[in-house]
Amino acid sequence: MLLLLSVRYGANQNSDATVFNSFFHYDSSNVDQRIIRDIRLPRVIGAMLIGAALAVSGGLMQSVTKNPMADSGLLGINAGAAFMLTLCFTFFPKMSTLNTTVFSVIGAGIAASLVFSISSMKKSQMSPTMLVLSGMAISAFFTAISEGIALVAHLKQDLAFWHFGGVSAVSWAQLYRLGPWIIIGLIAVMFMASNLNLLTLSDDTIKSLGKNTMAIRLISLICVVVLSGISVSLVGAVAFVGLIIPHIAKFLVGTNNKKVIPMTIILGADLTVLADLIARTINPPNETPFGIIISLVGVPFFIYLARKDSSQI
Asked: Per the UniProt record, which residue ranges are transmembrane (predicted)?
C-alpha cells in the first residue's frame, strides 16, 4: 500500500489509471508515466532498500554492543562515510558512483574502528557509556571537518543533500550497481540470526558452546560498515532509523533474531518510504529532506530510551 501511495503522490498527483498504465501499458511519450517509471519508482525502491539497510545496521550494533542506544548514525559511522564523500566531491568531482561508494564504506570502517577502539581503551569489554560518548565525539569530529572542507571548496550547497538526507537523486543506474550489495548484506545478516541470538549470553557461555564471539562480532561489524557506507553514499547521513526500528520489531515479535531481523527489514523499509512520502507532500512543490522527518520521530524516541535505560548509558 505504501509503495502504491508513494508512486502516486508527490509534487504532482497521478490517477490510479496512470499508475496502472505505467506498469502494464507503458507509453514512453506520456510524461506522467515517465515520471513514475524513471523517477518515482527507483526513488521508492531506493528508500525501501536504504531503510532496511539502516534498520538492520542499527539492530546489529545493538546486538554486538549490548547497548539499546547503538545506531550507525548516532555512533559516528555515518559521519565517517559522509566525510569520505566530502573528500571525493572536493578532490575527485567526476568520480563514478561505484568508486564514491567504496570510499564511503572505507570512511564508515575508519569511524567504526575509532569508536570501538576509544570505547574499549581502558577495559577488556567496551563500556556502553564510553561507546555513546565516543560515537558522539567521532561524529562531531568528522562532521566539523566535512563542513570545513565544504566551506573552503565552496561545496556547502552541494553537500546539503547529504547532510539532511534524501532519496530524490536515486536512479536506476545506482540501484543496479549498489542494490545487489545491499540485498546480499541483508541476506547475510538473516543467516547470522542464530549466532546473533548467542550475543545475549556471556562470552564464556558462548565459548563453551563452541562459538567464536570475536568472529561473530567482526562479521556483524563488517555488515554494519558495508550497509551503512552504501546507504550514506546514496541518501546521505540519515540517523535514527537504526535506533527506532529494532526496538519496534522486538516489541512486535519478541527477541528471537530469526523473527526480529525480517521484521526489522520490513519496518525499516516502511519507515523510510513513509518519511519520503511525507517529505514530498507536506509542502508542495518544495521538498523537505526526509532525514528531518525521521529525526522528528527519532529524537523523542531517543529521549524515551535514555530515560528508560538510564542505568545502561
From this structure: 44-61, 73-92, 98-118, 130-153, 181-199, 219-248, 260-282, 288-306
CA Rg value for the chain: 20
Residues of the chain with pLDDT under 50: 124, 311-313
269: cell is: 523499509
Quote the CA–CA distance of 172 and 43 in Å, as a whole number: 9
pLDDT tens-digit series, residues 223-233:
999 999 999 88
Q: Which of 149, 162, 130 is nearest to 236 (CA)?
A: 162
Q: Where are the domains of the chain?
A: 2-8+15-308
Phi and psi torsions of 244, nearest 5°: -75, -55
Helical segments of 153-256, H only:
156-164, 172-191, 193-198, 203-208, 213-235, 241-253
Residues 6 or more apart from 97 whose CB is under 8 A from it?
A: 173, 174, 177, 178, 233
Tell me the pLDDT tens digit for each residue of 120-138: 665 545 566 677 778 888 9
Which CATH number is associated with domain 2-8+15-308?
Answer: 1.10.3470.10
Cell 563542513 identifies what position? Answer: 147
Taking a C-beta distance cutoff of 8 angstroms, is the pair 152, 92 a contact? no
The span from the CA of 41 to the CA of 34, in Å, is: 10
Model confidence over 19-53: pLDDT tens digits?
888 888 888 888 888 888 888 889 999 999 999 99
